[in-house]
Design brief:
Elements lengths: L36 H30 L4 H21 L5 H23 L1 E3 L2 E7 L2 E3 L1 H19 L7 H20 L3 H18 L3 H21 L1 H11 L10 H13 L24 H33 L4 H25 L17 H18 L9
Antiparallel strand pairs: 1-2, 2-3
Helix pairs in contact: 1-2, 1-10, 2-12, 3-4, 3-5, 4-5, 4-6, 4-11, 5-6, 6-11, 7-8, 9-10, 10-11, 11-12
């Protein structure tokens, strides 16, 4: 079965893909087209809503922790403005340049990931953060994009080889190296996201379904060992199965999250009127911001936000299907898949549909470097859209 991305009739490229030679004066700035309007407006709208909700969710904890109720809001707002500028700048770059930079970025990311257990800062019982020149960030955030870039570059030139197990070995090797570094960091959410992204990229690239069956068995075996021999992981599963068995311990966070969601009802308590954010719900401005959204805006407001995410993801895949070449299609498709996975896992965790994984909600959760990376990724998809023949233009 051929499950590769199918280009529209009249836009089919020969296989293998010819190398696209951009004029030297256009190797950096791309003047071929204008940005896709829906995909430009949707992340901007989500960022604006996200910053407002982050302020509403965080001002109590910010006052207690930082003696300033606007501390988190001011920082996140500054990163949002800078991130939108980065998105617009990246959208004007010719996305073909990232084909050559994909593997240097991946190599640098692996080095940073290996440094985390050595010089990283421990937070929440795990080392995931590294500080360089006073700036803290999680290398795993860069690793997600590095995987998409490198796999897109490899698949776009080696599609036929992917039909054999031997052709899949380089992809499996990259995945294995990253998973080992994430295990050292006790980074369950990173393992889940990168594994899912790798599977999606191989599926879009045309790998045969029989290899997915084999891969599923390997991942299932790894998951069994990981959940049964890693205490912190097994504790999360136990809390997920019955959070009320230990409501003051491992189940405390999910219980408070469900209280917040249930308190919102249909229309919510009103913006700024959440009760759970007053130091009842941990991480209320970070991974667990969506329950505050539900409490203040209700079911209707939460569904509107989910709808905006759905429209953004669908539009991203539309851009991927109308991309000029296979690399652009895989780049846009991979980023859209990553966004969809992060939204699904975050909302799944806070509603207790899934065990806790520590995945933040894009554009909403507090974190300057994560927000910058997300807007950088949106800029890459916009860059792909500028060279599409099917656009709603700005």
């Amino acid at each position: 079965m051929n499950n590769a991305i199918q280009f529209p009739k009249g836009n089919t490229l020969p296989d293998p893909e010819p190398q696209v030679q951009a004029p030297k004066e256009k190797i950096i700035l791309d003047e071929r087209g204008l940005m896709d309007m829906p995909f430009l407006l949707l992340p901007v709208l989500l960022v604006i809503i996200g910053v407002i909700m982050m302020f509403s969710a965080s001002y109590a904890s910010a006052y207690v922790a930082k003696k300033s109720s606007t501390y988190y809001f001011a920082r996140q707002g500054g990163f949002a403005i800078f991130g939108i500028a980065v998105m617009l700048f990246v959208s004007r770059l010719n996305y073909q340049m990232w084909r050559a930079l994909a593997f240097p970025i991946l190599a640098a990311t692996v080095v940073l990931m290996l440094l985390v257990p050595i010089i990283g800062r421990e937070e929440g019982g795990a080392k995931r953060w590294i500080y360089l020149f006073g700036i803290g960030f999680q290398p795993s955030e860069i690793a997600k994009l590095a995987v998409i870039m490198s796999y897109a570059a490899m698949i776009s030139t080696a599609k036929e080889k992917m039909k054999t197990f031997r052709g899949l070995i380089p992809f499996i090797g990259i995945w294995g190296i990253l998973v080992v570094t994430l295990v050292l960091q006790k980074h369950l959410s990173g393992i889940v996201i990168i594994t899912a992204v790798v599977a999606a990229m191989l599926f879009m690239g045309g790998a045969q379904l029989r290899w997915f069956a084999l891969g599923f068995g390997v991942v299932a075996a790894f998951g069994f060992v990981y959940l049964n021999f890693m205490d912190y992981a097994s504790a999360r599963v136990t809390a997920w199965q019955n959070p009320w068995s230990d409501p003051q311990g491992d189940g405390f966070q999910i219980v408070q999250s469900l209280y917040a969601i249930g308190s919102g009802g249909l229309m919510g308590l009103g913006l700024g009127r959440s009760r759970q954010k007053y130091l009842y719900l941990p991480e209320e401005h970070n991974d667990y911001i969506f329950p505050i959204v539900c409490e203040e805006l209700g079911f209707v407001g939460a569904m509107v936000i989910i709808l905006l995410f759905m429209l953004l993801i669908i539009r991203g895949f539309w851009i991927a299907m109308h991309a000029r070449d296979r690399f652009g299609a895989l780049l846009a498709g991979g980023i859209s898949t990553l966004l969809a996975l992060q939204v699904f896992f975050n909302i799944g965790v806070v509603t207790n549909f899934l065990p806790a994984t520590g995945i933040s909600l894009p554009f909403f959760s507090y974190g300057g470097t994560a927000l910058l990376m997300q807007l950088f990724e949106m800029g890459l998809v916009l860059s792909v859209s500028r060279q599409s023949d099917n656009q709603l233009l700005l």
